[in-house]
Inverse folding.
């Protein structure tokens, strides 16, 4: 399209008709390219029914909470909501049906990196058992990312292997750092080596205040800046360490998937590239922007333009649908993918489910 007026005209004449939703976003009209069978929204792209895969959703295991609650301060009460309990799938499935999500990838945000090995084994065991139960009860709707005790890297490698080989997990969910250690610290190499050997995805999700123990004062204010700024900043730092400290060179086949569109990194990767060009960053083998093309990113960037730009920086094959269920960040994530201007039907299908199916070994 050459300009906004031309774009409006194109939209008005297109069979797929858009409406504008403010803040520069283009969202599909209600019912556009979708139909409903009963209460389940069936997402269509063109004439094709697309199975959608949401790679970013959460569960919470009450029995595990009992093991950590005396050590974890400031946990959000939202974590206690019933829909998060993997043994309460009916409410969750109803919401997935409403949102047009066919398959969810479930995982648990780490709050156990302080635990010694024996307790960590207990926490991880109950969590992974509950996730596996949920996936076994609804194999068409859920796949799991296992929890691992990454503060004990060799144990985490064992837990990852057991989760994948014995429990059917598709990978693991980890934080953006572990206590005071960055993910690029050499101590984590056994875990990265195991993840690469198994060929499974490692989903990096920030842990909010746990990752800013010394610097929380700067996030205090009238809004929750730990969530708004701290979380994407934590992911940005984690990915930057993996790039600049050489982890992605050491393990080039690693399948890293970053929450929240990789935080701020893809939108500002030019500064990192320039650092290589001007000699300020000497230990890296290629431009940081090239490493983005060997990672995956969920679609949680909230605007059509943001998603368009994320695709431009990383490539269409790197983007997977994410909702952050059930925290209400983007229950309309499917519509945002449908509404990004300039994508072909094949590209929309890839983001909605095709890319995740390949990444996670899901047959759709
Ligand atoms: Zn999340």
């Amino acid at each position: 399209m050459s300009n906004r007026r031309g774009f409006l005209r194109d939209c008005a004449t297109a069979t797929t008709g858009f409406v504008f939703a403010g803040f520069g976003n283009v969202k599909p009209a209600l019912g556009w390219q979708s139909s409903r069978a009963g209460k389940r929204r069936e997402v269509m792209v063109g004439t094709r029914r697309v199975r959608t895969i949401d790679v970013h959703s959460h569960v919470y295991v009450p029995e595990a909470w009992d093991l950590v609650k005396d050590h974890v301060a400031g946990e959000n009460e939202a974590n206690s909501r019933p829909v998060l309990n993997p043994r309460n799938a009916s409410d969750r499935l109803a919401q997935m049906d409403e949102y047009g999500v066919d398959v969810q990838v479930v995982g648990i945000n780490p709050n156990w990196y302080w635990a010694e090995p024996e307790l960590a084994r207990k926490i991880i065991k109950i969590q992974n058992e509950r996730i596996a139960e949920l996936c076994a009860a609804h194999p068409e709707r859920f796949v799991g990312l296992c929890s691992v005790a990454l503060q004990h890297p060799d144990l985490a490698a064992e837990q990852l292997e057991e989760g994948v080989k014995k429990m059917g997990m598709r990978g693991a969910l980890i934080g953006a750092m572990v206590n005071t250690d960055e993910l690029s610290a050499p101590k984590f190499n056994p875990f990265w080596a195991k993840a690469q050997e198994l060929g499974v995805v490692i989903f990096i999700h920030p842990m909010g205040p746990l990752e800013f123990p010394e610097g929380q004062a700067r996030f205090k204010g009238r809004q929750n800046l730990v969530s708004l700024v701290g979380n994407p900043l934590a992911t940005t730092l984690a990915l930057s360490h993996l790039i600049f400290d050489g982890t992605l060179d050491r393990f080039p086949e690693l399948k890293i998937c970053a929450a929240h569109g990789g935080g701020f990194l893809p939108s500002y990767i030019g500064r990192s590239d320039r650092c290589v060009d001007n000699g300020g960053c000497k230990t890296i083998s290629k431009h940081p922007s090239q490493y983005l093309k060997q990672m995956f990113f969920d679609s949680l960037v909230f605007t059509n333009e943001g998603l368009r730009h994320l695709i431009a920086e990383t490539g269409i094959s790197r983007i997977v649908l994410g909702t952050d269920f059930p925290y209400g960040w983007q229950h309309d994530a499917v519509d945002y993918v449908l509404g990004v201007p300039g994508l072909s039907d094949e590209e929309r299908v890839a983001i909605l489910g095709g890319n995740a199916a390949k990444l996670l070994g899901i047959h759709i």
Observations:
- Residues 2-26+37-360 form a domain with the TIM Barrel fold (CATH 3.20.20.140).
- Residues 177 and 183 are 6 Å apart (CA to CA).
- The pocket of zinc ion is lined by residues 56, 58, 205, 259, 324 (CB under 6 Å).
